[in-house]
Amino acid sequence: MTQSPAPWWKAATGYQIYPRSFCDSNGDGIGDIPGIISKLDHLRDLGIGFIWLSPVYRSPMRDNGYDISDYYDIAHEFGTLDDFDRLVAEARARDIRIVMDLVINHCSSDHPWFKAACATTDCAEHDYFYWREAAPDGGPPDDQRSCFGGPAWVWVEDVGKYYFAMFGHQQPDLNWQNPALRREIYDMMNWWLDRGIGGFRMDVIELIGKDVDARHYYEGPDMHRYIQEMRQETFGSRDVLTVGESGAVTARNALEYSGRDRGELDMMHGFNHIHAAWDPDLGRFGPSRFDLVTHKRILADWQSALADDGWNSLFLSNHDLPRPVSYYGDEGRYRTRSAKMLAVAMYMMKGTPFLFQGEEIGMTNVVYERIDQFRDIETLGQYKDRSAAGVSDADFIAGANLHGRDNARTPMQWDATDAAGFSSGTPWIDVNPNYRDINVADDRQRPDGVFAFYRELIALRKTYATLRDGSFDLIEQDHPDVFAYVRALEGERLFVFANFSDEEVSIKTPAGLYAYAHTVLINTDTPVTVSDTITLAPYQAVVFGMD
Ligand code: ISL
Ligand code: CA
Question: Which residues of 38-160 form beta strands (DSSP E)?
């Protein structure tokens, strides 16, 4: 039997760009595609293999592009289709592919489909959306809430019916049951694939195929059938990466999406490890319940579920999440060290890493003082709901500062000049005032900086087959502060230790480690002596094995 070579995305590291906040080339305060092109050398130096580009399509930007009004064009504030083609080519010249964000569970209410659907019930587009009669009392068909606050059903006077919108009211859900709608989406995907893109990240893919009447929204009855059909009609025959975002997928059913016989996707972005730290009632806006033992168990479950089939994605942050050093590490004294430790713990596992912009220099959460500094539609929608429920401004702001989505959206910190070198104008969202100390220019010139560390780690993933294909086993499962595991492939071993606490900790030396005691592959701090125990300094990470 001949073995096909491993796909390129198994050894590649991804880097997510949130275009609005990455680099502004023309001083209007909004990041744009020419700005991204101007920073491609930074990403080449880091060694990444692809960029996941958050949406750049034409959009009224109520949810910063996750509300598309024209799938065939670029938002005017981000540039033109020519700029986009140039980005694909310039990236390709640096061995970097562009993975587009595919937002197809919903569109913008400004999309011509929705306008037509509201203008007359008699057009094909009317059925592209979910319309339902009012309840007998005139209210919505049911009491489903939307993710961004308020009811999920929205009344349209001219139509005399409600439509369904799981996110913002101006993000109507698309009715995937309609075959013409599905055809429109597949044609659009092929149009982008023909432009030479490197794949798709699929926004809330678990929501397509829902049954709104049965109130079965997540992983609904037709979801897998539609993903399979999509693959056949679009990317099935192309060498691209596909990753589905799903708040619902678990280690138990992950193979249903990425198993080799399923004909669906390459991998998923699952959120079990993120959600475990969220409050059951208040979600991300409640107090964090991060617990390392739970975190390790969840990640290990995913590693073993996908040990021989399917594939993992590895991430701690994205444009919806707080900054990892602030959330899981230490944003003060141990910022640099905890940033490196988190990178080791997460990205030495099996799977494809996805870094989020700024993670490579250890950017932190921002502290806003007033509600008018927030820009995120979710934060502002929740603010309305929570204020109505009696939550004080001070309490709400404290929660949003810890967990809100704007933490990831403050401008990328390039240097110590005004506006962090992000823009020559006034940024659309306030920069994090710590940019004078934390920025790319400063970090890159430090041999012990976070950037240099990430560059090394990314290179290792390309060099060592054990990192790509090796098995994974937890050590010290119940240790509350240490994340430790072994990767193994054909007699080669790799021992990974990461201290998640600000205190020194000692653990018993695992038997197999002695043979590797003198081959230290990575160490973020002082040398570690291997005796009956090994002792790690605060937030230290060390990796033994190979040489
Ligand atoms: O995990 C979650 C809920 O269970 C959320 O973080 C979820 O992943 C998220 O709300 C879905 O996000 C995606 O779709 C939204 C958009 O606002 C986000 O930016 C995008 O990542 C609507 O398109
Ligand atoms: Ca701009």
Answer: 50-53, 57-58, 70-74, 97-102, 131-132, 153-156
The predicted model scores a pTM of 0.97
Of 442, 376, 371, residue with least CA distance to 408: 376
Residue 214 · residue 254 · CB < 8 Å? no
Q: What interhelical angle do 377-388 and 393-403 show, nearest 10?
A: 150
pLDDT digits (tens, 9 = 90+) for 492-532: 999 999 999 999 999 999 989 999 999 999 999 999 999 99
Closest-CA residue to 354 (of 384, 326, 321):
321
Dmax (CA) of the chain: 78
Burial class (CB in 10 A: 0-12, 13-18, 19+), 40: middle
DSSP class of residue 151 equals: B
Q: Which of 442, 400, 417, 315 is nearest to 24 (CA)?
A: 417
Among 170, 203, 356, name the best residue to mutate to test ligand 1's pocket (greatest count of ligand atoms within 8 A of Cβ): 203
Distance, CA of 16 to CA of 312 (rounded, Å): 17
Closest Cα to atom 6 of ligand 1:
320
Using CB distances shorter than 6 Å, the residues near ligand 1 are 63, 66, 103, 147, 167, 203-204, 245, 247, 271, 319-320
Strands 70-74 and 57-58, by their bridges, are: antiparallel
pLDDT digits (tens, 9 = 90+) for 36-51: 999 999 999 999 999 9
What is the whole-number distance in angstroms between the Cα of residue 355 and the centre of ligand 2?
A: 23
Strand partners, 493: 488
- Whose atoms come closest to the Cα of 166: which ligand? 1
Strand duo 161-164 + 131-132: pairing: antiparallel
Under 8 Å between Cβ of 70 and 169: no
Alpha helices in 48-170 (DSSP H): 81-92, 112-119
> Domains in the chain and their CATH numbers?
1-98+313-320+332-343+352-364+434-463 (3.20.20.80), 112-164 (3.90.400.10), 179-311 (3.20.20.80), 468-546 (2.60.40.1180)
